[in-house]
Design a protein that fits this description.
The protein is an all-alpha fold and about 160 residues long. The chain has a domain of about 100 residues. The chain contains four helices and no strands. Helix 1 packs antiparallel against helix 2, helix 1 packs parallel to helix 3 and helix 1 runs antiparallel to helix 4. The longest helix has about 70 residues. It is rod-shaped. The chain starts with 16 loop residues before the first helix and ends with a helix.
């Protein structure tokens, strides 16, 4: 048999049973460690995704509430125009300003949401000062201008 290599399993040193159990145990430990690491990764990713979804829902609720406040301004303008009276509008604006000041104090408020409410607060403060006068045609025109601006911000 010149130059031919023959494989004979009986000639191989297979080791003891303890060596085999040790090797299999080591492989299983590595597989388990990798499996646990992957499981923890997916679990933390799912928790982060759920947290992001919850935060997005909260932001959407605040946005809906902000738009509802603009709608209240429009309704109060309509009531003031129908009654030729500044009272309903100023009462609504005062109430909205108080509500926004409370919202801005909430901890963990999203920065964009905070800025949107702050913009509404500035708008309300400006309109309250500009309409704090007796009823006349200029007041009616100011209400129509404010109503138009509210409708633009809602759209």
């Amino acid at each position: 048999m010149s130059g031919v290599i023959v494989f004979c399993p009986a000639d191989i040193e297979w080791g003891s049973v303890a060596d085999w159990f040790s090797a299999i145990g080591t492989i299983l430990a590595v597989v388990m460690a990798l499996g646990l690491a992957l499981w923890e990764h997916f679990k933390s990713k799912a928790a982060a995704d759920a947290n992001r979804a919850q935060q997005a829902e909260i932001v959407q609720r605040y946005e809906n509430y902000r738009l509802e406040l603009y709608r209240k301004i429009i309704l109060s303008i309509d009531a003031s125009l129908a009654q030729s009276n500044i009272g309903p509008f100023n009462a609504t604006i005062g109430s909205i300003i108080t509500q926004i000041r409370h919202i801005e104090l909430l901890p963990g408020l999203d920065p964009v949401t905070f800025l949107n409410f702050h913009e509404l607060l500035a708008f309300c403060s400006q309109t309250q000062m500009s309409t704090d006068r007796a009823w006349d045609i200029g007041t009616a025109q100011a209400y129509y201008d404010i109503r138009t601006e509210c409708e633009r911000r809602i759209a």
